[in-house]
Amino acid sequence: MCYRVTELQWNFATNLTEPNKKRMVDAQGLQTKLERVSWQKAITFSWSLLGDPQAVRQFRLIAAKGRPALPEHRLAELQKIIQEMKDIYNKAKVCPYLPSMSPYCDLSLEPDLTRTMAHSRSFEEQLHAWRSWRDAVGPKVKEKFFRYVDLANEAAKLMGYRDAGEQERALYGVVDLESQVSEVWTSAAPLYRQLHAFVRSRLRKHYAPHRISPTAPIPAHLLGNMWAQNWKNILDLVLPFPGKRRADVTPEMLRQGYTPHRMVQTADEFFTSLGLKPMPVEFWLKSLIERPPDRPVACKASAWDFCNRRDYRIKQCIEVTMEDLLTLHHEMTHIEYYLQYADQPHLFRDGANPAFHEAISDAIGLSVITPRHMHRIGLLNNITDDYETDINFLMEMALDRIAYLPFAYIVDQWRWKVFAEGGLRNSVNSAWWELRVWHQGLIPPVARSENDFDPGAKYHIIADQPYIRYFIGLVLQFQIHEALCRVAGHIGTLHTCDIYRSREAGRLLSEIMSAGNSRPWPEILRMATRGATDKLDARPLLEYFKPLSLWLRVANRDEMIGWVTTDQDTGMTNFLNIIKIVISNNIKYFLPFLNLRENKTYSNV
Ligand SMILES: *[C@@H]1O[C@H](CO)[C@@H](O)[C@H](O)[C@H]1NC(C)=O
Ligand SMILES: [Zn+2]
Question: Which residues does the record give as chloride binding sites (predicted)?
Answer without folding.
Answer: 172, 469
